[in-house]
Amino acid sequence: MRRARLLRVGALAVAAIASAAADAPKAFELADVHPADPASAWALAAMREPTLSARNGQLRGGRYEIRSAALVDLISVAFSIDPVKLIGGPAWLDTARFDVIAKVPAGATAADLPVMLQALLIERFHLATHPDMRPFPEAVLTAGPRPLLKATEGGAESGCKRTTPAPEAGLTCRNLTMAQFVQTLPQMAGDYFQGNRLLDQTQLRGAFDFSLHWAPRRTFVAAGTGGVSLASAIEKQLGLILAVRDVREAALVVDKVDETPTANAPNVPQLLPPEPLAFEVAVIKPSAPATEKNVRIGGRVEIQGVTLKSLIKLAWDIEDLDAIDNDELLIGAPAFSESVRYDIVARPPATGPADIAALKLMLRALLVDRFGLKTHVETRTVSVLALVASKPQLQRAEPRSRPGCRNIPAAGPAAVTVFSVRCRNTTMAQLAPKLQAFGGPYVPNPVIDATGLQGAFDFTFSWSPLHLVDNSTTEPNGGITIVEALDKQLGIKLKPQKSALPVIVIDRLNATPTDN
Which residue from 350, 353, 264, 344 is spatially nearest to 311, judged by alpha carbons? Predict the structure, then answer.
């Protein structure tokens, strides 16, 4: 019965896609598919990407481009599915990376891309899939024994308003259904959900009027013993239960896929010349004295109050604002590069790629063009943090699982723990380069694997951001650093040591930029 229902669901989904795409282009006009350069900016960014998340690529000027994309990225985009809900397939599905550059038919839009990408994967990788249902951890709202909700009377406008100034948090909601509430709460209490959604399993019908007050996680330490966590507030004030549970949800199973795509047609690379990785226009000026540091990299680059040294480290992907400095990975920066700050507004070409890795390459080109920057790469001995085995508490991986880590809702009653990551079929060598992105200020140096542990493991670890860890010895609040979490929960430690790594060496840098 369940199998028949799944097949019906799958057939309906396929029919919906086919109906929506009836008048849309069915395939790219031509496509260049080739293994990605492992030393490219896109590949390095993907290696450090902490969690499993699809990289969507860009459609600009009749050209679709996605760089250093694992097969899991391409399949997730093609089927519009969360990559964590892509099941099965070989282990290399997350590690073998490809560049896809395709010519899109005239008149095609971004909405047409999934169908065309599906066709490309079937033709070039012989991809075969089927739908299924699998359990996934989700934050779930259920009704307690005595819900404390008042049914709405009259036709009040539906919605929620913030009612409590910082550092407390509060909502007053009117004429709100539970379906609306689970959509609203993750937006209003984002530091408890960290991008995860909330599901409604209360089975409560109708609309309600209610108020809710809690202590945000970012101020829980300051709230002291009077602080009320979100889960406690929901239970005491609304009579509802907020917990993490496994929920059966739609998944996509990979039945077959080739690691090597079929060959490109002759002359395809010549028909798809690479776009110049340079900004169309850029304005650089010294920052005003009171300018605060701010970096926004999206459709364009907007930077305020940043030194040249920080700009170089940002462009070479060795700095994450002030959270990760990696000073020893940049050699020869002159003194002025750490004192004078600049504002930059730069716009990429309308027909060029605009993902973050491409924009950072454009920033490199800008520094070369306007500040005369010249660099080379050397191997130097630098400070690192070595991941070493203490008393490993790691479960051998289920070999059929694909490697990858996912940010999941933090389970348990702890009010302070914020980040919780579940990794599957992951080696210590795969975990090590991700720990800086996970840990931020806890992990000031690059991490190398020195555990000596062979093979892959399944594990979960949880920790708190720095500002929520109470260092008081009298009344600890339960916060835990990522270093403590690795030791206590996984039995592996981070220890400072020296190691040889590639570094960027500055050969030349001008103190002032050329004119705008």
Answer: 344
Q: Give the DSSP letter string of 468-491.
A: G----SSS--S---HHHHIIIIIS
Q: To which residue do tokens 């992990």 refer?
A: 443
Q: Which residue has the tokens 């050397």?
A: 378
Average pLDDT over residues 352-378: 82
What's 71's DSSP letter? H
- β-strand partners of 60: 63
Distance separating alpha carbons of residues 387 and 401, to the nearest angstrom: 24
CA angle 94, 99, 103 (to 5 degrees): 135
> Has residue 299 got a pLDDT over 90?
no
- For the chain, percent of residues with pLDDT exceeding 70: 80
User: In Å, how far are 91, 313, 364 from 507, measured between CA atoms?
Assistant: 41, 15, 14
Please tell me the distance from the alpha carbon of residue 303 to that of residue 346, in angstroms, as a whole number: 9
Which runs of E-coded beta strand occur in 272-373?
A: 281-286, 294-297, 301-307, 330-331, 341-347
**Exposed, middle or buried by CB within 10 Å (0-12, 13-18, 19+), for 103?**
middle
CA angle, residues 241, 242, 244, in degrees to nearest 5: 125
Cα distance between residue 428 and residue 392, in whole Å: 11
In this predicted structure, the answer to whether residue 316 has a pLDDT above a threshold of 60 is: yes
Residue 7's H or E segment, with its range, is helix 2-20
CA-CA distance, 85 to 486, in Å (whole number)? 26
* Plot region of 509 (φ>0 → left; ψ -120 to 50 → alpha; else → beta): beta
pLDDT in tens, 198-209: 999 999 999 999
Say how many residues make up the chain. Answer: 516
pLDDT over 80 (residue 466): no
* Interatomic CA distance for residues 72 and 81, integer angstroms: 10
Report the 3 state secondary structure along 392-421. Answer: CCCEECCCCCCCEEEECCCCCCCCCCCEEE
Q: Copy the structure tokens of residue 190.
A: 């984002």
Q: Which two tokens stand for residue 5?
A: 């229902």
d(CA 426, CA 459): 8
CA atoms within 13 A on the CB side of 280: 11
**With 50 as the cut, is the pLDDT of residue 286 above it?**
yes
Token pair of 188, please? 């209003």
Taking alpha carbons only, the member of 103, 87, 58, 66 closest to residue 398 is 87
